Amino acid sequence: MSDNEDPRWAEDPLEAAAKVQRLYDSDVPFFTKDRIREAYKSLQENNEPGKKAYTRDLDGKLESFKIETGEVFPDPDDDLKWIGYPILYYVSIQHLLDQEWLGGNSPYSNLRIVHCLERCDEPAEEIDQQIKHESLQRAIDTWRDSQSWEQLKKALSGVSLPPVKKFVAFALSSMPAFSDVPRDNRSLFQHALLVTLRDLLLESSTQEHDGIKCYAQDPAYTERDIAVLQSCGVTVLPDPEGFLEVDEETAVISISPNVPVKQVVSELARPALIIWNTIKGNGLEETPTTDPDSPRLQKWINEHYETLEFPPEPELFGQLAVYARRT
Ligand SMILES: C[S@@+](CC[C@H](N)C(=O)[O-])C[C@H]1O[C@@H](n2cnc3c(N)ncnc32)[C@H](O)[C@@H]1O
User: Fold this and answer.
1) Alpha-carbon span 309 to 322, nearest angstrom
2) Which residue's alpha carbon is at the smallest distance from atom 20 of ligand 1?
3) Residue nearest atom 19 in ligand 1 by C-alpha distance
């Protein structure tokens, strides 16, 4: 919750929601790199218990958040202990307009600082780095031999893609050991998609290049994920550095994130190529997911992108689509 002395949430919530809706219906950007950069800098500079970090509201006012890094919270129900660390929290338009989601925050605050809790008495078990590496390699080999990869390459060869100099992947998650249960291999195959697509574009690139940079952002990565990905040419970035990297020459891959990646990315840049969960409408009819569609997103995709089918692989990828920017 924000920590302002002059709480803006005292404003009439319905009136505030109407103002936010008016801002949304106008062309006011809901996420900008400058606002994200400013909040990130404030969080980095003030990441000590008791200090305050700031984010800027949609109407330009500053919102302060008390930092509780390292505070230990005992669980009243058992012996577990949790430790808090602050993160940036991106609020979708649906949740911003939903009174129940405000939770004491300003209705104009769609970029907040919240605290995540992590078990501090028992570190999570991690698989061996070599096993992680071999598991990813096995997924890459299996994916390269698959019909789906052939279909995806064929679909991409039918469009004229704008130049791609960078990949940024979101939410592909920590990689487990290869399993006989296909669903458990989602993260491995999603990273296999990232690596094989990067290699494909590198091979087919006719322009002079100094390679294609490849980044991945997911707070779930462990030190071992970071090392294994680095050995495949993928650099892990902390949130929000992945968002700040996205530009017109970027290919974005984002699969079922816990944050509204579609709404954030579509406000920051117009990437050359996007693979993410299929946009099905304006996102207003259904209960919003963590990465909901929206009226702006639907319009943006229709105006600037050609939609290609992603081969149906629901267990490994969910329902994805490929969006190639029109040249
Ligand atoms: C529902 S899981 C999906 C994982 C995987 N892509 C899949 O399809 O099974 C959501 C993922 O979003 C990640 N996530 C949460 N916050 C994020 C952020 N700020 N940036 C990128 N990923 C984030 C979580 O760590 C988690 O790995």
Assistant:
1) 6
2) 218
3) 239
Mean pLDDT of the chain: 91
Residue 216: what are its φ and ψ, rounded to 5°?
Answer: -140, 135
Amino acid code (one letter) for 245: E
pLDDT tens digits, one per residue of 212-232:
999 999 999 999 999 999 999
Structure tokens at 202: 């590198």
Question: What phi and psi values does residue 2 have, to the nearest 5 degrees?
Answer: -70, 165
276 lies in some domain: yes
Place of tokens 């892990």: 236
**Residue 185 DSSP symbol:** G
Is 186 close to ligand 1, i.e. is its CB under 6 Å away?
yes
Q: Which residues contact 8 (CB under 8 A, 6 or more apart)?
A: 57, 61, 63, 106, 107, 108
In the listed set 119, 148, 182, which residue is the last one of a domain according to the structure? 119
Hey, is 276 helix, strand or coil? strand
User: Mutate which of 115, 229, 258 to test ligand 1's pocket (most atoms within 8 Å of Cβ)?
Assistant: 258
For residue 324, the CA-to-ligand 1 centroid distance in Å is: 23
Q: Are 113 and 65 in contact (CB under 8 A)?
A: yes
Any atom of ligand 1 within 6 Å of the Cβ of 42? no
* Domain count for the chain: 2
User: Within this chain, do residues 317 and 283 fall inside the same structural domain, yes or no?
Assistant: yes
**Beta carbons within 8 Å of 180's beta carbon, 6+ residues apart:** none
Structural domain contains residue 97: yes
Q: Is the pLDDT of residue 270 over 90?
A: yes
